[in-house]
Amino acid sequence: MLNGQDQDTTVQGLIAVVNKLILVIIVLVAGIITMPFVLYYGDNTGKEKIEKTAIQFQDTVAYWIAADINTITDTKKKLLVEYGKELIAHTSKYLGPRGSVMQMSNGMNCQNCHLQAGTVIWGNNYGSVASLYPKFRARSGSIENIYKRVNDCFERSLNGKAIDTAGKEMQAIAAYINFLGSNVAKGKKAAGSGFKDLTFLNRAADPQNGLTIYTTKCQSCHQANGEGVFNPEKTEYIYPALWGKNSFNDGAGLYRVSNFAKYIKYNMPQGTTYLSPKLTDDEAWDVAAYIISQTRPHINVPKDWPDISKKPIDHPFGPYADVFTERQHKYGPFNPIIDEQKKKEEAVKQKASAEVKN
Questions:
Q1: d(CA 255, CA 243)
Q2: Which are the contacts of 57, defined by CB distance < 8 A and separation ≥ 6?
Q3: Buried b (16+ CB within 10 A) or exposed e, 326-340
């Protein structure tokens, strides 16, 4: 049993321990409170970590999920939608150079560009097609329906021919795409559809640097000459051709360096997701520039962009509504082009405002 003095000593010891614990807790709390500010203002790496964490939280709760085919109760409709999915996933098997239905495309599959049959977030998915089509597209200068949009892909990305809009294959593809986005309200854009934004470089994208990146991070799948790898039956690509006679032609959307850079950044190489990109922004831009600098089929589309002022800033072919060169429109830098466009828009607004006042 402790005497009075021993009891006092014990109490004092406990008080000292408690005081130390309180001090530790205060330090920890202060650290937790100040850490975001230290990371944010102290260095860019910390800022990027915070931003990435915020994106991850948002992405896990906000993005579109494709409608589930297994919920279709109408047997006839389900079979049509399933056939549409099969055509998207294995286009070449049915419509490629050795297609079982017809031979009218280059051997690539729709899902080579629209990943996992058009369902991957920021993987050029089909989430917004049903909700936004028909819609006006500046490239054609007209209202386009889903059939026109699909045939654009056949003629450009698959470097083939348009298919009969009333035929079974087109009807199946349209049924599948429309069903995938049937859970998106009409007129609304599905979160995570299309391409995820990528900051423009303050320089031109560099094809020569892109060659180094391609060699180290892409060549093992797509091969040294970008020819890709066919399956043993030669009916479809395991890894698609990125240039050459069997790749997409120069009228395809991915021939624009910004589209291709966005696609690469958040989807390539294998194993990449929008939450865990494996390439830096610079690497994505440069390897995209390298790939589109290579030879590929040409398509003659003289009716594209009837209003040249509506051309995207990275459309690689003139004429343009500005003084920048074709090379700068193809590879950048793009900020000077954007600045010039803004000046023109502001001038138009000021002129209209002056006319109203007068």
A1: 10
A2: none
A3: eebbbbbebeebeee
**69-180 and 207-341 share one CATH topology?**
yes
Cα(89)–Cα(114) distance, integer angstroms: 9
Asked: is 207-341 a CATH 1.10.760.10 domain? The reply is: yes
- The pTM of the full predicted model, rounded to 2 decimals, is 0.82
In Å, what is the CA distance from 108 to each residue of 56, 90, 257? Answer: 32, 8, 20
Q: What is the pLDDT along the chain (358 residues), one digit of tens a residue?
A: 444 444 444 445 545 545 555 554 554 545 554 444 433 334 444 434 333 333 343 455 489 999 999 999 999 999 999 999 999 999 999 999 999 999 999 999 999 999 999 999 999 999 999 999 999 999 999 999 999 999 999 999 999 999 999 999 999 999 999 999 999 999 999 999 999 999 999 999 999 999 999 999 999 999 999 999 999 999 999 999 999 999 999 999 999 999 999 999 999 999 999 999 999 999 999 999 999 999 999 999 999 999 999 999 999 999 999 999 999 999 999 999 999 999 999 988 888 888 888 7
Cβ-Cβ contacts under 8 Å for 12 (sequence gap 6 or more): none
d(C-alpha 113, C-alpha 194), whole Å? 11
Under CATH, domain 69-180 is a member of which superfamily?
Cytochrome c-like domain (1.10.760.10)
Q: How do the domains of the chain map onto residue ranges?
A: 4-62, 69-180, 207-341
Three-state secondary structure readout of 267-318: HCCCCCECCECCCCHHHHHHHHHHHHCCCCCCCCCCCCCCCHHHCCCCCCCC
Q: 132 φ, ψ to 5°?
A: -105, -15
3-class SS of residue 162: coil
